[in-house]
Write a structure and sequence with these properties.
Layout lengths: L1 E2 L5 E2 L4 E4 L4 H6 L11 E4 L4 E2 L3 E4 L6 E2 L2 E7 L15 E8 L2 E2 H10 L4 H4 L5 E2 L4 E2 H4 L6 E6 L2 E7 L7 H9 L9 E3 L14 E6 L3 E9 L1
Parallel strand pairs: 3-15, 5-11, 6-17
Antiparallel strand pairs: 1-2, 3-4, 7-10, 8-9, 8-15, 9-12, 13-14, 13-16, 16-17
Keywords: Hydrolase, Metal-binding
Pfam families: FAA_hydrolase (PF01557)
InterPro entries: Fumarylacetoacetase-like_C, Fumarylacetoacetase_C_sf
Amino acid sequence: MLPVTGGGGFPVRRVYCVGRNYADHAAEMGHDPNREPPFFFQKNPENLRTDGLFPYPAGSRDVQHEIELMVGLGEGGRDIPTARALGCVWGYGVALDMTARDLQAQAKARGRPWIDAKAFDDAAPCSALTPVDQCGDHAEGAIELAVNGELRQRGNLNQQIWSLPEVIAALSARFTLAAGDIILTGTPAGVAPVIPGDRLVGHIEAMGSVDVTVTRG
C-alpha cells in the first residue's frame, strides 16, 4: 500500500519498469540511443519503500541510483489507445530504481533475467502518490537527483524516448493492465554508485520529491 498525499492509501497490484527510456542514459550504458521498441521488466510491490531508508543489499558491491517518474493507474485494460492512455492515470510520484549493476552485468553476460539486480528487497524507495487532480499531467518538467548535495542526474520528462501515453499503450499490448499497477518510466543519464551513509534527494517538477538515506543492510 502506497501512501497518498493528503491521506489514504493506494493498493499496489504490479510494478512495471521501462528500460532505457532516455537517450542519454542508453548511451552512457553503451546502447543505441535512437528510438527502438520499448522493453519492460518488473519489480515487486513489496520493493516499494516510503520510510526514507534504503538498506544496502548484501549480495552486491555496486548498487546505483536511477531516479524515475512513478505512475499509478486507476484503471487499465488491454490494447489501450495512446489517445486515451492518460485517462488511466490515477496519480504520480517519484521513485528510485535502485540497481545492483554488478549483478545486472553478470545476468546480461549469461543471457539471464535481471531479477537479482532489479527486484531485491527494498529496491524501489519512493514518495507518496499525488492524485492527478492535484498535480495534473505533465509531458515536461525537470527531473533531478542529488547525492550528498551534489547533483548527479538532471533531465526533463520531455526527453523520454517513449512518452507516458506511448508507454501505457505499448505495455497494454503485452499485459492486461489494471487499477493498482505502478509504472516506472525510465531514468536520465548520470547513474552512479551509492554507499551506506549517502543521502539521495530527488525531485520531479510538479510531481513530488523523495529523500532517502542509504543504510547498511
